[in-house]
Design a protein that fits this description.
Layout lengths: L2 H6 L2 H18 L3 H9 L6 H9 L6 H4 L6 H8 L3 H6 L3 H17 E2 L2 E2 L9
Helix pairs in contact: 3-8
């Protein structure tokens, strides 16, 4: 038996692979251009996909959120629970608005505190 076929029947390995796949997907939700692409393909309208997004809310729990590297992913996951947000993601202007808001947040926040807009960034 080789390693690949052994891991196919190992529940722990199966669960780990599933968790890693779901984590990678949730982190991709931090990208407004990816969300826009999903909306353009009407994926965000599919009931099964909407149910999957609801299922993924477990990542907001402390034990799972610690694995998230891009906090906007959790924010977008929450927004995706709303039909209006999913509909607006189809629009180029909304995608650009979301991207700008995300950029402004990264630009003006350091360690969870708002930085004065006039303070120059450190090199």
């Amino acid at each position: 038996m080789d390693a690949a076929s052994g891991s196919e029947s190992d529940p722990k390995a199966i669960n780990r692979a599933r968790f890693e796949l779901e984590l990678e997907f949730v982190q991709a939700l931090a990208n407004p251009y990816y969300l826009h692409s999903l909306a353009q393909q009407n994926i965000l309208d599919q009931p099964a996909f909407i149910n999957y997004l609801e299922y993924l809310l477990y990542f907001k729990e402390k034990d799972y959120a610690r694995f998230i590297h891009y906090p906007h992913a959790l924010h977008h996951l929450e927004l995706l629970q709303h039909a209006q947000f999913r509909t607006e993601m189809r629009q180029d202007e909304f995608r650009d608005f979301l991207h700008q808001k995300q950029f402004d947040h990264w630009r003006t926040n350091r360690n969870g505190t708002k930085v004065d807009e006039e303070t120059p960034a450190l090199p």
